[in-house]
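[Help] Beginner question about ligand-bound structures

Sorry if this is basic. My supervisor gave me a protein sequence and a SMILES string for adenosine-5'-triphosphate and asked me to "get the holo structure". I don't really know what that means in practice or what format the answer should be in. Inputs are pasted below exactly as I got them.
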Amino acid sequence: MTTSTALHALTPLVADLAQDLPERERFRRLLAALRAVLPADAAALLRLEGEWLRPVAIDGLVPDALGRRFRIAEHPRFAQLLAAGQAMRFAPDSPLPDPYDGPLEVHDCMGCVLQTGGLPWGLLTLDALDPGRFADPAALAALQAFSNLAAATVTTAERLRRLARSARALPAPGAAPGGESSRPLIGQSPAMRALQKDIALVAASDLNVLITGETGTGKELVAQAVHAQSARAGRALVSINCAALPDNLVESELFGHVRGAFTGALSERSGKFEQADQGTLFLDEVGELSLPVQAKLLRVLQSGQLQRLGSDREHHVDVRVIAATNRDLAAEVAAGRMRADFFHRLSVYPLRVPALRERDSDVLMLAGFFLEENRSRLGLGGLRLHPAAQSALLAQDWPGNVRELEHLISRGVLRALSRAPSGTPAGGRARMVTLGQADLQDDAQPPATATPTLPVPQAASPGASPQGLREAVESYERHLIDASLQRHHGSWAAAARELQMDRANLQRLARRLGLA
Ligand SMILES: Nc1ncnc2c1ncn2[C@@H]1O[C@H](COP(=O)(O)OP(=O)(O)OP(=O)(O)O)[C@@H](O)[C@H]1O
Ligand SMILES: [Mg+2]
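Answer (accepted):
No worries, everyone starts somewhere. Holo just means with the ligand present. The predicted complex, written as structure tokens, is below.
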């Protein structure tokens, strides 16, 4: 490369330092400049987040790489790069597994740590499909030189980030207890970006939030994100699944009880509201609450006042409420199953989580994220999606949304593993598995129209011990629901489809039968 082409590629980067660019764009330009200076088939910028490295920009890798997170301890190349503190090359015969081998067959690669303020910020990596592309030592020297400019770019991005955060008075990431263990909200489609923006907006306020969306779209993750980005992030996020408990227990869970308030109330206990004081209470499946419980909740929402069951003492709480449902609550109000005043209190700021089929190629990013989780859990060297499998994923319409995709990938990985030869391949490299289209074909789920063939349970078979008709029917119902839930890995929506029932009715029946 001539000096003038190098200058041509690098000058805009220097100019960018003085510009207020969105972070994504700034990083995209950085990688484009890197590839102009050092021809490679792929480049990535990864940010260090505790014990993880997360790609924040990629150029030339398939989109699922952006959804991945890499635990440093499981990727010796990344660990070495971070420890080296300078540019390093991994020659084609390096026995260390390549983190990108999943999405790409990589044969030559280099990387360099980026430092800001004397601390490692992350990594720049470059990959080539042909061996020997980076054999010339000048390539390594160029990467080292480039990384100094890249460090200036990320320092600028960090400074802007900090400014934006303090302008919104947001706590630093990780301030939320347990926040680190929850998943990031993966997705860059316009629909998800709009949602992320809305989350940031509402998080900064103290308004109650109603999260709606189909089953499996990620409502719970959205609730966690709102809390984590709010001023209450350092306080508790307490969750309750309103569908999982019968009415009298929901009340005691929410408001607490005194000793002897009901049979079994052996000691006094605080409820979720009091536990969430100063923090956030997440009311999941809020559409399942009965009218009397809604009335009691309304009072707390209005005044912050509550009484434990069986007590007349008032407690005052300061709680932000986030609720979620996959029902159309306005329709529930119209049908008389939900109080209008309760609904309006809850839905001060509605957030709609888009269905997976509205999220374009986010499907592949999410698939990449789930593949990496499976790879890590199973200790594999790499897991990749065959291009035909990628196309198949993009073509589906995902009635069960992200949860369905997550389960499909986990099952696909097991199928692919059962086909692949076991043992560690020669050269000490860890095992590499490719998911084909057939691995993702779900014959585990019967077609929606087919009637499932179910064995007749013991209790209903002739000759079983005598019992009333009602008891026998209930026992059979219990068996059917349980079997269907198992077939669908606990998805109520899928079980309801198979049993041709409304999901809420199914859950209510299951509760009555003591199943949920
Ligand atoms: N954007 C996302 N990024 C990463 N994982 C996601 C995303 N959205 C959903 N998931 C994962 O998909 C699964 C389903 O998400 P979640 O339980 O939040 O859905 P839900 O909308 O609450 O569903 P339901 O209405 O059935 O309760 C979870 O394992 C969650 O971690
Ligand atoms: Mg949920």
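A couple of things worth pointing out: Residues 168-180, 444-466 have pLDDT under 50 and may be disordered. The first helix runs from residue 3 to 17. Feel free to follow up in the thread.
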